[in-house]
Structures are given as C-alpha cells and as structure tokens.
Amino acid sequence: MEKSAILSALATEVKQGRLFFSTSANTAIHIKNKLEDPDCNLDSAIHLIKAEPLFAAKVVGIANSVIFNRTGKEVTDIRSAMTLIGMRTVRSLAIAIVVQQLAGPQQKNPMVVELWQHSTHVAALARVIARHITKQNPDTALFAGIIHEISWFYLLSREKHFPGLMDESAATAWASDEDLKNESELECEIQIGSAILKALSVPTPVLEGIICLWKGHLSSPPTTLGDTLLFANQLAPVKSPLTLTLNQTGDDIMYGLHSLIDEQALQDLLKESEHEVKSLTKALNS
Question: What's the predicted TM-score (pTM) here?
Fold first, then answer.
C-alpha cells in the first residue's frame, strides 16, 4: 500500500472522528482535562500530578531549569515546583505527556526518541526566539514547539494497523517519495494533526501557527508564531527523522530570520541562551 493511500485512509479515519489513543495517552488526556477544570485548585492539581510519576518528574525538572529557577536553589517537591512555574506551564507539560504517550508501545523506538528530542529542542529554541526576536509570547512558543510533531507521533502509533507506513527507510522515504510531492499528502498530514490538536482543545492561534510550520509559510515580516516555529525548527541541532518537504528551503528560512537579526547577533544570542536551552531540553526529556 503506497504511503499516499495510507495517509488518505488515516485522514478519512480522523475526519470521521475516529481517533485511537493508547491507554497511557488516554490517562494523560484525563489528567490534562482535570487540570483545565476551573474548579481544579492547587491541592487537586498536586494530587493528580503525584499520581503520575512521569508528569511529576517533568514538573520538578522544569522548575529546576534555569528559565524558572534563577536562584539555583534546588526544588524537590511538587508544591514548590508548581508555585514556581505556574499552572499555565503545568498544563503545557500535560500536553507534552500526551504527545509522548501517543506512540504507546513504540516509545523506545529510536525514531520516536529522536522525534521527541527534536520536539524539545524546537520548543526551547522557540521560547528564546519568541522572547528576543519575533516578540511572541515565549510560553506559547514553548507550548507550540512541544506539540508541533504530534501528527507523526500519532502516525507511529498507528503503524501496526497500516503496514508499510513506517519502514526502515522512513527517515528519507517521506521526503523523497514521488507519491508525496503534492499538496494532497501534505493536506492529509495537516488534517490528521489538526484533528488531534482540536481533540486536545489546543487554542486556535497555536493550531494556526503549527499549520504555518507544517506548510512552511513565512510571513512578511516574519514575526508570527508560525515564523517563530520555522526558525526554531531550522536551528534545532536534532532534526526530525520524519518530515514532508516544506514550501520554504532552509536558505529561505534563514534569510527571513536574518531580516530580523544579523548573523553575528544571532550567534551571540544562541551562545548566550545555550545553557538555558540545554537546561530546558534536559528537563523535557526527563
């Protein structure tokens, strides 16, 4: 079965509202929904997070990153961590857990591991770029970066039901297959990813920014959330092992970035933010 046909079949599934999540992903979604309940107070949130070790580790890890913990005094408990980073960040981490859990049994698959490492680097860099260059909300950029590869995590989770979707040469096949060099396949991916993000109640501006990344659309001037993600995606040291061809080349994206900041200033910023990025990606990968 050709990849274009598989993508079309999967897109039809999600169009009909048939989304299949692993048990662990459903658990994470349940926690996310509870945290978003207006009646969920700090004590209730702490109780929820303590019951999920992976979530608890991420909350404490993020609280100890240099972005949030400027004093260097180690945070060791959930209550202190949540007080430091705030509920908005905690809710973003809940989505991060959902994304990781989407792959289900394939979580240790090298491709899944690489995809998650790429996502965390894009998230950390997007936060830096948003704050210093595009002047977007840094926390929103971080959130969008975490979830921008969600369609691929879902596709990986469905591989056993669609043999041939992800094979040994998948890292290059998606970018090189003649089958996938037209808008219909990209639209299938966008349809799948959009359906998942809508099911998770991701805000429309974030969804639109991620779609701009998927399509490779740079604005003029390039200062939107989508542009922020494109820049972070281009600068990330860990590249996605799975991607469809963007409308913009790497040179196009860097030209857009250099229209906002010159090369030397960009390198200085990246150097200055290196510790921050490493600290955040380490916390997200814990």
Answer: 0.84
